[in-house]
Amino acid sequence: HPVLDLRRLGLRLRTHVAALEACAVRLCELQGLRGACARPPPYTGVWLGERKICAIGVRCGRNITSHGLALNCSTDLTWFEHIVPCGLVGTGVTSLSEELQRLVTVDEAMPPFLQAFKETFKCSLVSEDSSN
Question: Per its UniProt record, what Pfam families does this chain match (predicted)?
Fold first, then answer.
């Protein structure tokens, strides 16, 4: 979850959410998955058709963000059969592993995520340790 000072970066909250979506789309591209895209509200997040691959949930207090995005890497998708994901009837959920037809771990997804984050936010990262 990136913790950012939006005021210092000159970003509005909606712009930040759009940047997180762009970051997740770029990560999908780097993993070889084409067709991922952001959609207008209420479909916040990143989608492949009618299937959500990345959820976005940002909290912002005093211009400091917390929370962020959740990209499904190797998530057990059967749990989503018991709910209406994000309250959006008629939509589903997918994962990198499901779409690429191979196991994609969080550890595998972190380096391309960090690359996508740096490209999207045009920055260098203080810590590239995936445990932070």
Answer: LplA-B_cat
